[in-house]
Amino acid sequence: MKNLVVILFLCVVSCDRSHRSSNSIESDSTWNQQKREQYLTNRNDSTTWDIKMLETDKQMIGIGDFGPFEIGVFPVPKYDLLGKDSFKGLGSKGENYQIGDKTVIMNSFFVADNEINKKRLKGKNNEVFFQLLVLTDTLDTINYNLNKNIGISRNHPDYVAQGFVKTKENRIDYVAFDTVESNSYAIINTRLFDLNFGNTILIAPQKDGTLRSLQIKSPQLTSETVDEYTNVLLQEERVKIFFTNTSNI
Predict the structure, then answer these.
(1) CB neighbour burial string for 158-173, b if at least 16 within 10 angstroms, e if fewer
(2) Whole-angstrom Cα distance, residue 222 to residue 127?
(3) Are strands 184-188 and 171-178 parallel, antiparallel or unpaired?
(4) Which of 35, 65, 90, 108 shows the smallest number of beta carbons within 10 Å?
(5) What is the pLDDT of residue 140?
(6) What is the H or E stretch that residue 163 is in?
(7) DSSP letter at 12?
(8) What pLDDT, in 10s, does the model give residues 195-248?
(9) Rounded to an integer, what distance in angstroms lies between the CA atom of residue 249 and that of residue 236?
(10) What are the beta bridge partners of residue 204?
């Protein structure tokens, strides 16, 4: 079942477009240390905080399990302090695939084109910064409690994705982040992945309780191309061998 989610709650753009002050950082499609330092200063300056967004975010306190970390609610600077249209959305897209009698769950996370990243995106509507494919031996098509995820924009211009996928005997927890400086990493059940060497990660739980991983350097994907890419990827011989190995669950 396909699952496309454009995250609205944790990716709401501040409604205050008129705020401009000495704390404002003018956007110019580049990023530098001075802008990073100003952003960190704004984090500590309550006059820059988006209070309306903070009040809305309080509804997320104790909302439930969406991955390895409890969702923390912090005050954050107004997004537009990084420049008008510096943020236009964050989303996730998921799908279930079959390889023989095996089920593979795919979760992916993408950032929409904005004034800060548009030079890197080169006209694309968005960019997938993390894709995870997990082999599982169980599905919940009623309550969807076995596969949950969330994308979080509250570190804008850096972004976080987290979630979990359950098997009958195990749980695959993950968190990934993408910074404006392109320092992108994922942690999956304590294994660290540098996503600059491939932002598509495959996980195959084993019958003995251990895990196997395969990192793939995929092309620049979008929410529109990730399905087609995944269908092609799952036909590759190395991927079929990885997911159908007899030692897998």
Answers:
(1) bbbbbbbbbbeebebb
(2) 5
(3) antiparallel
(4) 65
(5) 76
(6) strand 158-166
(7) P
(8) 999 999 999 999 999 999 999 999 999 999 999 999 999 999 999 999 999 999
(9) 20
(10) 212
Task: In whole angstroms, give the CA distance from residue 196 to residue 1.
Answer: 29
Secondary structure (3-state) at 64: coil
- Whether the per-residue pLDDT at 102 is higher than 50: the answer is yes
> Residue 214 corresponds to which amino acid?
L
> Which residue, among 1, 48, 40, has the nearest Cα to 144 in the 3D structure?
1
Q: Which two structure tokens, joined as six digits, stand for 61?
A: 């306190």
Could you tell me the CA-to-CA distances from 197 to 183, 200, 232 in Å, in that order?
A: 11, 9, 20
DSSP 8-state class, residue 65: -
Instruction: Check pLDDT > 90 for residue 192.
Output: yes
Give the N- to C-terminal CA distance of the chain in Å, as an integer: 21
DSSP character at residue 116: T
| Predicted pLDDT at 144 | 67
Scanning the structure block, which residue is given the tokens 């976080």?
160
**How much is the pTM?**
0.85
Q: What long-range pairs does 233-239 form, CB within 8 A, spacing at least 24?
A: 233/200, 234/97, 234/99, 234/104, 238/214, 239/202, 239/214
Cα angle vertex 130, ends 111, 115, to 5°?
20
Whether 13 contacts 163, CB under 8 Å? no
Nearest to residue 168, comparing CAs of 149, 140, 190?
Answer: 140
d(CA 73, CA 61): 7
Residue 12: the pLDDT is 35
